[in-house]
Design a protein that fits this description.
Helix content: 25-40%
Number of helices: 6
Largest sheet: 8 strands, mixed
Number of domains: 1
CATH architecture: 3-Layer(aba) Sandwich
CATH superfamily: Vaccinia Virus protein VP39
Structural class: alpha/beta
Number of strands: 8
CATH class: Alpha Beta
């Protein structure tokens, strides 16, 4: 497996600067606003298929906004947020002092497997990396996500079907069909591609039997 420490360091610096500029807000994790953030959380949430208590890893958790979302939906779950930016983890820990079912770790990989894993926005900002290197990083990270998920996982990407005039240098626009095919081949028969929620992105959900 390729050493991705250089990419991880760049990503950490990028998101740390966003947090410093905007604080613990959607803009602080490089989203346009709360409405879009909520909409993509609704898609990621579809991987959860438990009536009772569940565990969840959130890779690239930022300041922990998805934990807030989960608290509006579920009464019994354990959440672990993981982020490569130490400043994000510090902000999350401060924000959720006293939340017994939430834990925040600095790094790229969870400590233990959970029922479900989500990853929101971590594949969007490729910075100066080549498309080839970023695609390799993406595929290797999905493999990690799978390894740490016992019941299913979900992630999102900017879509290659975005309007050309709105595409920006430094961002990565993935081919949804290629990633759907990759997940079907490698991670199971129960795979969903969600590309119908009015953002320039898509969500893939993998459910394990």
């Amino acid at each position: 497996m390729k050493d991705n420490s250089g990419i991880i360091s760049q990503v950490s610096d990028y998101y740390s600067s966003k947090l410093c500029e905007h604080g613990a807000t959607p803009q602080g994790v490089d989203w346009n606003g709360a409405e879009g953030q909520f909409l993509r959380f609704e898609q990621l949430n579809k991987v959860i298929c438990n009536n009772g208590k569940f565990t969840l890893n959130d890779i690239g958790c930022g300041y922990g906004a998805f934990y807030d979302f989960l608290r509006t939906k579920y009464s019994s779950f354990d959440y672990v947020g993981v982020d490569v930016a130490a400043s994000m983890i510090s902000a999350a820990r401060q924000r959720y002092i006293g939340s017994a079912n939430a834990k925040f770790l600095c790094g790229a990989v969870p400590e233990v497997a959970a029922d479900f894993t989500v990853a929101s926005g971590i594949f969007n900002v490729k910075l100066e990396n080549s498309i080839h290197d970023w695609q390799s990083y993406l595929i290797e990270t999905i493999a990690i996500i799978d390894k740490f998920s016992t019941k299913g996982f979900a992630f999102n990407c900017l879509t290659s079907y975005s309007d050309a005039e709105r595409m920006k240098d430094g961002l990565f626009y993935a081919d949804p069909c290629e990633l759907f095919n990759h997940c079907k081949i490698h991670y199971g028969r129960n795979v969903a591609l969600l590309h119908d929620y009015n953002l320039f992105e898509f969500t893939i959900i993998v459910r394990k039997s």
